[in-house]
Amino acid sequence: MRRIFCILLLAALALPAAAQPARFNWEYGADFRYIFDNREFAYSNDAIIPSGTMHTIVLAPTVGFSVEQSPRVRHRLMAGVEFAHDMGSHTWTDFAREPIIYYNAHVRARRGTFDAFAGVFSRNNVEGAYGEAFFSGMFRNSDRNIEGVLLKWRAERFYAEIAFDWMGQYGPQTRERFQVFSAGRWQASEWFQLGWSGSFYHYACSEIAPNVVDNHLLQPWAKADFSRRTRWQELSVQAGLYVAYQLDRGRSMQPDIPCGGELKLTAKRWNVMLQNTTYAGGNLMPFFRDLDPAGIPYATNLYFGTPCFDKFFNLSELAWTPQIARYVSLRLAARFYVSGQGFLGWQQIASLRFVI
Questions:
Q1: CA distances from 13 to 19, 35, 69 (A)
Q2: CATH class of 2-355
Q3: The pLDDT of residue 282 is above 60
Q4: What pLDDT is attached to residue 34?
Q5: Interatomic CA distance for residues 234 and 160, integer angstroms
Q6: Residue 343 confidence (pLDDT)
Q7: Contacts of 339 (CB under 8 A, 6+ apart)
Q8: Which of 17, 30, 35, 239 has its CA 20 to 30 A from that of 89?
Q9: pLDDT tens across 52-70, in order?
Q10: Any idea where the domains of the chain sit in the sequence?
C-alpha cells in the first residue's frame, strides 16, 4: 500500500505544469476545542482506570498558502501554534503547547483522490476507525497532533490510510519511540463493509532503560448497517477480531500473542446515539502494570488504549452529537464501564468544537 501511495505522489508531481501560471492563494484556519472529561471510578477503587477530570480549552490557528500546480494537483504549506490551557491550573507558562507546521498535497486521479501530510499536523486529519483498544478518549484529547507523515487514498467504494508518528527521541531518560498505524474500509454493498485497523508501536531504548518493547495490534472487522432507506442515521452491527503481538525483549524473546473478539452495536437517530461494545478474549495489554529496568511504569507510555481489554469488557455509551452550525459541533456523552470484576465506573463528557 505504501508503494502505491509513493508512486501516485511521484506521478502527480511529475505532471507538466499548466500553460497558465500556477494559482497562488493565501489560506487560514482555526480549530477551537472545549473539552470536559470527568471519570468516576471510585466504585472499583480506581483499580483499572483512575478517577480524574480533564478540563481544557485548545486553540490552534494556522496560516499559509496553497499553489495549484494543475486542475488536479494542489500543494499547501501551513504554520501555526497550538495554544492550550487546563482549567484551574492558574499558570500560563505552557500556554503555547506545540508548533503546527506541515505540507499537504492533494491529487485527483482518475479513480480517486490522494492526500499526503508531512510535518506536525492535527490528528483530526485521520479518518480511520480505531477502537478503544487502540486509542482511548483521553489519549485522543491529550495527544492532539501527529509528528510525521499521513497518506490517504479514497476511491468510490474504498478508503485507506497509513500514518507514521514519531513520538520520542533517544535520550538519558526519554525513549526513542514511534508508531505506524493504518485503517481502511471497503463498501462491499450499500449495507455491508469490510475493513481493518492496525498499529505497529516500537517502544525503544533510553540510556537508563536499554530494553526494547514491541506492542502491535491488528483488527480485521465486518460491519452491517441496516439504516439505509429508514429514518435511522445508523443501525449497525460490527464484529471484529483482535490479534496482538507483545514482546519485552529485555525479559524474553518469546512473544505473547493474545487474541479476542469484539462486538459493537450502534443505534442512532436525531443525533442521539446508543452504542454498546463487548470484548471477550485474552489480555491485549499484558505489560500495562509492569515496570521497565529504570522503574518507570509502562502503563500509558506503552499502551494508548483503554486498559480494560482482558477476558471480558463491556462499554456502553449514550451520546448526543448535534451539528449546531456549519462550523460548530457539540458532543454530550455518558459512558459506563463493566469488566469481569463487575461495574468499574462511569464517565461524563462535554465537548464543543469550532473549526474553519
A1: 16, 40, 8
A2: mainly beta
A3: yes
A4: 97
A5: 22
A6: 96
A7: 48, 308, 310, 311, 312, 313, 314
A8: 30
A9: 999 999 999 999 999 999 9
A10: 2-355
Strands 311-320, 272-281: pairing is antiparallel
Q: Which amino acid is at 75?
A: H
Burial of 184 (0-12, 13-18, 19+ CB in 10 A): buried
DSSP annotation of 288 reads T
**Looking at residue 17, what DSSP letter applies?**
P
DSSP 198-251: EEEEEE---SS----EEEEEEEEEEEEE--TTSS-SEEEEEEEEEEEEEEETTT
Give per-residue pLDDT as tens, 222-258. Answer: 999 999 889 999 999 999 999 999 999 988 889 999 9
CA of 29: how far to CAs of 63, 131, 146, in Å?
6, 28, 17
Q: At CA 32, angle to CA 51 and CA 77, rounded to 5?
A: 125
Q: Which of 279, 311, 307 is nearest to 41 (CA)?
A: 307
In which residue are the cell numbers 471510585 written?
Answer: 42
pLDDT, one tens digit per residue, over 99-141 is: 999 999 999 998 999 999 999 999 999 999 999 999 999 999 9
Digit-coded pLDDT (tens) for 221-232 = 999 999 988 999
Exposure string over 71-91, b if 16+ CB within 10 A, otherwise e: eebbbbebebebbbbeeeeee
